[in-house]
Every structure is written in C-alpha cells, then in structure tokens.
Amino acid sequence: MPEAVETGVPGGDVAARHLRTPETDTPVLVVDDLVVDHRNRSTGEVFRAVDHVSLRIEAGQSVAVVGESGSGKTTLAMAATGLGTRGEGDIRLLGHSLSSVGRKELRRLRPEVQVVFQDPHGSLDPRQSVRSGLRELRTLQPRRTDWIDDTGLLGRVRLAPELLDRYPHQLSGGQAQRVCIARALLMRPRLIVADEPTSGLDVSVQADVLALLKEIRATTGAALLMISHDLAVVRSVCDVVHVMYRGRVVESGPCETVFATPENEYTRELLAAMPGARWRSRR
Ligand SMILES: Nc1ncnc2c1ncn2[C@@H]1O[C@H](COP(=O)(O)OP(=O)(O)OP(=O)(O)O)[C@@H](O)[C@H]1O
After folding, report:
1. Calpha distance 237→213 (Å, rounded)
2. Of the residues 2, 26, 66, 123, which has the maximum number of CB atoms within 10 A of its CB?
3. Model pLDDT, residue 101
4. CATH tag, 27-282
C-alpha cells in the first residue's frame, strides 16, 4: 500500500498541489528475477553484473540499494528503469512490462522516471544556460512541464532566479546538483532515481541536497530509488534497503531492522566499515 505522505504545502500553493501525483495501489517498479551481463569489449569475456535480483518499489516509497563499488547497483538501477542494458527478467514500470510495451507507450513512460547522477556538472550540457536547458525540456514535454515557471521551479530547490542565466561552469557543485534536481522535478516523475547524488559534493552541502530530496519526495509523492555506498545517507533518507554483493541482493528489509540487526555477514562488514558504523556505535 502506498504510504500516507503529508504534502507540507502551504494552502495557497497551487503549483505544488498540481505537482502531487495521485495515490495509487500500482507499484511504481517491480523487478522480477533480473539478470544483466556485461561483455568486456576487448576480451569478449562476459561478466554477470546483476544476478537474479528482484525488488519492488511502492508508490511514494523510498528504497535504497547499497553495496561496495562494482557490486552492480548502477547496472541494476539503469536496467530496472529501462535506461540501461535491459537484461533478462521481468520489469514492470507503473504496471507496464518493459519487455512488451510498445515504443509509443515507452515514450510516454520515460518521463515518469528521472535520474539524478553523481556528477552534476557531467549531467548538464556545458553549452546551455540553466534557462535554455529548462526551455528545451519544456519544448519536449509542454504539457508535463506547464505547472510551474522557471523562477518558481528554482525556488523549489532553493536557488535564486539569478542563476537562470548561468552556465554549468558558473555553478558550484551543490548548485549544479540542485539544477539537476529541478530538471527532474519539472517532469513530475513518479520515480526519482538518485545514483550517489551527494558523493561528488562538498561535505558541507551534502546534507542540504539530501534534505531537498526528502522534501521533494514528501511534497510530490514521487518514489525514490537511492543508489549509495554510504549507509549514513541511506539511513537518513530511505525506508527500505537492499544490500548488494557481487550482483546479488544478499539482504533486504526496513532500514531500521537491517541496520540494527543485520543477518548477512556482508551487511555486518559494510556496517562495521562504513560511516554508518559510527552512527550505530553512537546509539
Ligand atoms: N558497460 C559496461 N561494460 C562492461 N562492464 C561493465 C559495464 N558497466 C558496468 N560494468 C561492470 O559491472 C560491474 C558492476 O558495475 P556497476 O557500475 O553496476 O556497480 P556499482 O555497484 O554501481 O559500482 P560503482 O559504485 O563503482 O558505480 C562492475 O564490475 C563494472 O566494471
């Protein structure tokens, strides 16, 4: 069941009310027995990056995939959202199976998933000002994006309107990531995938960006799939965690349970080795 989420939106905020997605019982994402192989271009060797993984994200839920570098988190997220190598297994996005959906339907579904990447500057076109980048999105999706103007949108991610005329190289890492989040928000997605959204940022702005993602989830009702190696980040943002090790999900459950009483040896090692360990020992 989708959880009840307070919008926290002031009464007069028409744009925010329009933004909020309708509650629905259809899970945003269901991944069933996904297998993704990568082939090494020079040796031809096949490497199994995702090995029979299943997971489910309900409407409005906040789900994390954690694991060390190379464990297959990004491959899983990209395949599961139809944005990367598809692999084998069934993936249902908003109730539509990606293996049977037609091109037109896929085009309609695409904007429902927005990805925020680790490197905000790498995600933005260096030749486009913030304003012209937003204009391009509005041209591509006029009806989806007409709920708010540029100034209002930047306000939602706590950026001053003056930044509209800046180019990516004129933005700090934190500002650029907020622009990326604004671009995602503009599309009114049902699922936001955040792939290590704070690991390229100064420590001083990491907490602000996480707080912003949490707020956007609460005010829009969008589900969140957070990819991270940082357990402290996951704990502060997510309800449910899946722990990945060498392409497999080795443990899943509510964050509080998995972090307090990890059952898998690898999860215990992660907790001991990562910043989350400090959090646990402080409790
Ligand atoms: N396009 C590709 N071609 C070949 N191998 C790939 C490709 N993409 C990823 N891999 C390999 O698949 C494995 C999983 O990579 P993936 O990026 O999904 O892991 P990850 O857990 O997200 O790691 P990181 O946090 O470092 O991004 C790694 O060994 C990686 O080298």
Report:
1. 8
2. 66
3. 87
4. 3.40.50.300
Q: Measured from the CA of 71, which atom of ligand 1 is nearest?
A: 21
Residue 114 in tokens: 């927005």
ipTM of the complex: 0.93
Please give all residues whose beta carbon lies within 6 A of any atom in ligand 1, as ranges: 38, 40, 47, 49, 67, 69-75, 229
Residues of the chain with pLDDT under 70: 1-24, 274-283
Rg (CA), the chain: 19
- Protein residue closest via CA to atom 7 of ligand 1: 38
CA–centroid distance for 71 within its chain: 17
- C-alpha of residue 70 to centroid of ligand 1, in Å: 5
Query: Phi-psi category of 9—alpha, beta or left, where left has phi over 0 and alpha has psi -120 to 50?
Result: beta
Q: Locate 280 and state its tokens.
A: 């646990």
